[in-house]
Design goal:
- The structure is a single chain.
- With 623 residues, the protein is of the alpha/beta class.
- The protein folds into 2 domains: 255 residues, Rossmann fold; 291 residues, Rossmann fold.
- It is 34% helix and 24% strand.
- Strands 19, 20, 21, 22, 23, 24 and 25 form a 7-stranded mixed beta sheet that branches. Strands 2-9-1-10-11-12 form a 6-stranded parallel beta sheet, sandwiched between helices. The chain has a 6-stranded mixed beta sheet with strand order 15-13-16-18-27-26.
- A hairpin with a 5-residue loop joins strand 26 and strand 27.
- The longest helix is centred in the middle third of the chain and has 19 residues.
- The two termini are 14 Å apart.
């Protein structure tokens, strides 16, 4: 490609839909990857997102999961400019409002609409302007439908955002639902004339069958609207990219339920049950299990669905207290306790982990009206919901009894609960099992899949002196080593002393505390780094059958997931696997597969012409 002069402001294109869950996020991700493959510097943007699946940026800020995924498709670091406003539903008609990655507060829908939205425009426009100055192309995503008459006066995410960005709009419709022509024409009819003029064409998504049988309808649609059908995209099976909202999850659950009976009876497949909490969040934690060919994942909402699972996962929750009360009222809590006592394998992630303790305390009523709620009392810790939320990217190691060795892990934390142990020394079965360190500068755009060397991690886990372990955690940076030796927290030293008092060194190693070190890096380039001391996190029973952690993404760590599943396989009399799915490699393949699929069925050249970039060369090629 020949070089060209930089654009003053990025060109834009916007993906809107006739309804929720028509495929806007996936089409946006496809365009992001396509333009990136063609050599452009591309960024995603969604002014306001509502989702219980969030993504933590490199600097510890929270944005919508879809924009994080789309940034990954672009091969760039996600920032809060890509999703300046995030709404996380907490209970009926109340959401936590997050602005540029940090909580603003909890607002009822009417209060948010009347008092907060009026102040949102400058926040959104500044974020969009920042991206347009930094990138060649910005691909915007809308929300729901642009034709919601009762919401249009306060719109900041659909046609008003398109106007601010001067973006042509592609309207996406889901033919799998039926009524695709009515949904497209009806949406156009409800738009204002200037809004209708912005629509440059349609993409009919999730098509199944012979497209020639659709041709007469396509011809009618183009004649009726005067706008082109840019593509008919066939349904893409098992894409392997995460869903974002509960509607997508419920669709997946319906699909899984239809095959559950047959799959549960499959003696060669592991059966893993996930409790479908009413306020389930970050359910993408389960996605790697769904990618394993010999694992069947299903969601449980009632006792009748329990079956005979090989493991049960209690996932994250946006309202841990209410979901805990739901489990008790439904009888699932009692069933879970029986399963635990029978030796069943149980994993708790974030909100699920919080339920494992003795009490959940909410003095500020951060989560609910309940000041104190009794937990499952499996481990001697209390959870207190604080005023401030912790959002961090972290990495470290995990060592569980029953698994061979120590495993490097990485992920992110998003929680307001703070754990305090009552009797760590005296309660042998309740010692934390993870060793983590916060890393905000770990992202390598050339290779996101790099993992710490497992042999090195195993060597570190074998050390009796935790201070030495801290020194070894980052051998590549000698200056960091010196800082680590100087900075241990006194409370952590006490915890380490408690551990070394144990006479059984094997038991001690199986229940290592998590040692957390935060690397604060304001620029993401290795400069201005601040190292905190190590802290403990997570819990595990003495036999490693029950464990919990705040670490979202724990099951995305391939080596740990393989070891955990292999233990379940051997329990079932199945052969352990030597290799499992490599999640990051599979994800990159999914992005490429998606881009190839959309290139095949969508007129990308026409979209480029509408954007005003035509056949121009890219601004910069990646080395």
């Amino acid at each position: 490609m020949r070089e060209r002069e930089p654009l003053k402001l990025a060109r834009t294109i916007m993906v809107q839909g006739t309804a929720s869950d028509v495929g806007k996020s996936v089409i946006t991700a496809a365009l992001c990857r396509i333009f990136t493959e063609d050599g452009w510097r591309v960024a995603p943007f969604k002014s306001q997102n509502m989702s219980l699946n969030s993504y933590v940026t490199w600097d510890g800020k929270e944005i919508g999961r879809a924009q994080g995924m789309q940034a990954d498709a672009c091969g760039i670091l996600a920032t809060t400019d890509m999703n300046p406003i995030l709404l996380k539903p907490k209970k009926d008609m109340v959401s936590q409002v997050i602005v540029h990655g940090k909580p603003l507060g909890d607002f009822a829908a009417r209060v948010y609409r009347e008092e907060v939205l009026s102040k949102a425009e400058p926040i959104v426009r500044q974020a969009l302007d920042n991206l347009r100055k930094e990138y060649d192309i910005v691909v915007l995503e809308g929300a729901g439908s642009p034709a919601e008459i009762n919401l249009k006066s306060r719109d900041i995410v659909n046609m008003k955002a398109a106007k601010w960005a001067d973006a042509p709009v592609i309207l996406v419709a889901d033919i799998d639902r039926g009524g695709v022509f009515a949904s497209i024409v009806g949406t156009l009819e409800l738009l204002e004339p200037d809004e209708r003029a912005r629509v440059c064409g349609f993409i009919i998504n999730k098509f199944r069958g012979d497209v020639s049988l659709l041709q007469s309808g396509l011809d009618w649609l183009e004649e009726r609207t005067g706008k082109p059908v840019l593509g008919v995209v066939p349904h893409l099976h098992e894409l392997g990219l995460e869903d974002e909202d509960s509607l997508s999850l419920d669709v997946a659950i319906q699909k899984l339920a239809a095959e559950s009976l047959a799959e549960q009876s499959n003696a060669k497949k592991l059966d893993i049950a996930v409790l479908r909490l009413p306020h389930i969040s970050n359910f993408t934690d389960i996605d790697p299990l769904r990618s394993e060919p010999d694992v069947h994942v299903r969601f449980i909402t009632s006792l009748q669905q329990w079956g005979k699972p090989d493991a049960v996962i209690v996932p994250g929750s946006k309202n841990t207290v209410d979901d805990l009360l739901y489990l008790r009222a439904s009888g699932l809590a009692e069933k879970l306790e029986q399963y635990r006592l029978s030796g069943g394998d149980i994993a708790g992630i974030c909100g699920g982990y919080e339920m494992f303790g003795s009490k959940l305390l909410d003095p500020l009523h951060t989560e609910s009206d309940q000041g104190e709620t009794e937990g499952f009392n499996w481990f001697p810790f209390e959870v207190t919901f604080a005023a401030e939320k912790r959002t961090e990217r972290v990495e470290g190691t995990i060592q569980l009894a029953g698994l061979d060795g120590s495993f490097a892990v990485e992920g992110y934390e998003i929680h307001m609960g703070e754990v305090s142990w009552q009797d760590r020394k005296g309660h042998e079965a309740g010692n934390p099992s993870f060793v983590l360190e916060g890393v905000l500068d770990q992202f390598d755009e050339s290779d996101q899949a790099d993992q710490p060397d497992q042999a090195d991690q195993a060597d570190q886990a074998d050390q009796a002196d935790q201070a030495d372990q801290a020194d070894q955690a980052d051998q590549a940076d000698q200056a960091d080593q010196a800082d680590q030796a100087d900075q241990p927290d006194q409370a952590d030293q006490t915890d380490r002393t408690d551990q070394t008092d144990q006479t059984d060194q094997t038991d001690q190693a199986a229940r290592l505390p998590l040692l957390l070190r935060n690397k604060r890096n304001a620029h993401g380039d290795g400069s201005e780094q601040h190292l905190d001391s190590y802290i403990a996190e997570g819990c595990a029973s003495e036999d490693g059958r029950v464990w919990g952690t705040f670490l979202h993404g724990i099951l995305h760590n391939d080596d740990f997931r393989l070891a955990w599943l292999n233990r379940l396989r051997m329990d079932r009399g199945l052969e352990p696997l030597l290799e499992g799915v490599r999640v990051q490699e599979q994800r990159e393949q999914s992005f490429s597969r998606l881009a190839d699929h959309v290139r095949t069925y969508v007129n990308i050249d026409r979209i480029k012409q509408v954007m005003g970039i035509g056949e121009q060369a890219c601004l910069s090629r990646k080395d």
